[in-house]
Prior knowledge:
Layout: H1 13-28, H2 38-45, H3 49-61, E1 65-68, E2 72-75, E3 80-83, E4 102-109, H4 113-119, E5 126-135, E6 138-148, E7 158-159, E8 162-163, H5 166-178, E9 184-193, H6 196-202, E10 209-219, E11 222-232, E12 236-239
Parallel strand pairs: 3-12
Antiparallel strand pairs: 1-2, 4-5, 5-6, 6-11, 7-8, 9-10, 10-11
Organism: Streptomyces axinellae
Domain HTH gntR-type: 11-78
InterPro entries: Bact_HTH_transcr_reg (IPR050679), Chorismate_lyase_/UTRA_dom_sf (IPR028978), Tscrpt_reg_HTH_GntR (IPR000524), UTRA (IPR011663), WH-like_DNA-bd_sf (IPR036388), WH_DNA-bd_sf (IPR036390)
Amino acid sequence: MGTTRLETVPEPKYWHLKTVLSDALDSEFAVGEILPNERELAARFGVARATLRQALEQLELEGRLQRRRGVGTTVAPPRVGVGVGPEGGPYVWPGAPGDAWHTEDHEETVPPAPVARLLDTGGDAVHALRRSRTTSGQPVATEVLYIPAHVVCPPPAEQDGHSATGAARARAVLRELHRMPLAGQDRTVELGSARAEDARRLDRLPGAPVLVVTTRYLIDSGTSAVAVSTFRADTCRLSFSDSDAAPLLAG
């Protein structure tokens, strides 16, 4: 193919180049294939390497490319379909049968101010359950489930004379939560940036784009729990239906 010149394009060069590169990814490259180096790509499209880097960074943020140390820049696989809607009924508690999340840890802590307002706990400590989700062995989401202490009794600090692990205490909290009738739930989705801890768990850099899903679980007397779930925005496509999510090509 010939060199593509961009000098007369009115929009930012890197943005137009991103579109041109995206078309090339669809027509010329296979998933996992390594792209030519920056010098070759810059020469082909007639742009400065700084412009090329901006376009490549944008495509990486959109999940079209992956940069791997010691390998180079490769074409990313299709986005993973991740079902967010309830399974097994219109409303289900976290940790119910069919739940795709893995419960990892428990602590008692004061929740972030937005969560405290939803739970109406003021400055009181709550149960905070750390959970994670993987697809094909890769981390795709991390979650903290906040439950007020007055909603469920604290799990025993010891079981059979031995200290309970964080995961065991978390499961005990969930068992107590499941005893309550769930009246409903609602969700909101926002685009956010990965905090340091979430980035570490998701194998991303701090500040990477993420999708933050906040779920409020309701009982007759009000909000009983709030889950803040952080999904990788570069590899996930969220589905809120009851059916399985279908894969979608990134971009």
